[in-house]
Specification:
Elements lengths: L3 E5 L2 E7 L2 E2 L10 H14 L5 E4 L6 H10 L7 E6 L5 H9 L15 H5 L4 E5 L6 H13 L1 E2 L8 E2 L3 E6 L3 H6 L5 H7 L2 E4 L10 H16 L5 E2 L1 H9 L5 H15 L4 E2 L6 H4 L1 H8 L6 H15 L4 H8 L3 H10 L12
Helix pairs in contact: 1-2, 8-10, 13-14
């Protein structure tokens, strides 16, 4: 097996490893936007064309890239993800194309680089817009000639690699600003896939939360936790600026902080609880007094960790009035059984 310098999952650490082989990945969704994306992935996957995946941070662009690889004829070969933001130009050039021993300080042995490691498979260039211009030119040459020349070497090696890129930046605008090469853009931009933001996939939110909650339950060998209807309502109303990545984090937070097998609004992070109020204020929308009261009670419940007397004290009301508000706003049915 080839020895290859490959990045660690959260950043390219230069560890000696083999390219990732295709692993089954559950692609979760049922909304119209999700189905449309999935159908496009299926069509694109059967070709060898370069692909640019665009979308907001946290939408799951790498997941889409892996889906393209898994459904392609290259699925038996490696999938090599590269974080273009992790290293500066010189080191990234070595990571991409390899180097020979002694070509620079610290080059104690030959390495093949990401492109040769991905030979026959797929290379995923995440945040392609972060590449420096000189490295963009070298990448273009590799794509044009289907070969790579390691740093410090004069010998070229042929490669058969499908290139899938991702970005949350406007590459066309970057071309106008002189920050991205037009010739590289047109070389890469055979097919563009736009990954929808989570707020455009409202029907998928609860499905995804339940998926993440099951993963947490499996991880800790615990029962799967369920959502109260009012918890589901809050999750659907939230704007999700961090998209699916934020949703996964919120699901993990709720699993950890919930004291029972049912997740109540008080188990959610404060950003989510107050999200609809903040969003309404930003958009100059009107919220009724009832809506404001409900948000205040939920926020106090969370801050008091579900303790009734502590919640009442925060709201500066007696516990009997708090009971009436909880019932009025149809909050946690287990409220009266929670610790005082």
């Amino acid at each position: 097996m080839k020895s290859v310098m490959k990045e660690e999952r959260m950043g390219m650490g230069g560890a000696q490893s083999a390219p990732e082989m295709a692993k089954p990945i559950k692609f979760v969704g049922r909304s119209g936007a999700f189905r449309s994306l999935s159908e496009t992935i299926e069509m694109v996957a059967q070709r060898n064309s370069s692909v640019i995946i665009s979308g907001e941070t946290g939408t799951g662009k790498e997941m889409v890239a892996r889906q393209i690889h898994e459904r392609s004829l290259r699925a038996r070969e490696g999938f090599v993800p590269v974080d273009c933001t992790a290293l500066n130009g010189n080191l990234l050039e070595s990571q991409l194309f390899g180097h020979v021993k002694g070509s620079f300080t610290g080059a104690i042995s030959d390495t093949v680089g990401f492109f040769r490691a991905a030979d026959g498979g797929t290379i995923f260039l995440d945040e392609i817009g972060e590449l420096e211009l000189d490295l963009q030119a070298k990448l273009l040459r590799v794509l044009q000639e289907s070969s790579v020349t390691p740093v410090g070497s004069t010998k070229s090696y042929p490669v058969d690699v499908r290139v899938v890129c991702a970005t949350n930046r406007d590459l066309k605008q970057m071309i106008h600003e002189g920050k991205f090469r037009a010739d590289l853009y047109f070389r890469l931009n055979i097919v563009t896939l736009e990954v929808p933001a989570l707020r455009e996939r409202n029907d998928d939110i609860i499905l995804l939360v339940n998926h993440f909650l099951k993963k947490q339950a499996d991880l800790y060998d615990e029962p799967v936790k369920s959502l109260l209807p009012e918890t589901e309502q809050i999750l659907r109303q939230y704007n999700w600026p961090g998209n699916v990545r934020e949703l996964a984090n919120v699901s993990e937070h709720a699993h950890i902080t919930s004291r029972s097998n049912v997740i109540t609004p008080s188990d959610l992070p404060s950003d989510v609880l107050t999200g609809d109020l903040v969003q309404a204020m930003k958009q100059d929308e009107f919220m009724s007094f009832r809506q404001l009261q409900r948000q205040l009670v939920i926020r106090a419940m969370q801050k008091a960790n579900g303790r009734k007397m502590a919640t009442a004290k925060l709201l500066e009301i007696d516990h009997r009035k708090l009971d009436r508000l909880v019932e009025q706003f149809e909050l946690s049915p287990g409220w009266r059984q929670q610790a005082i």
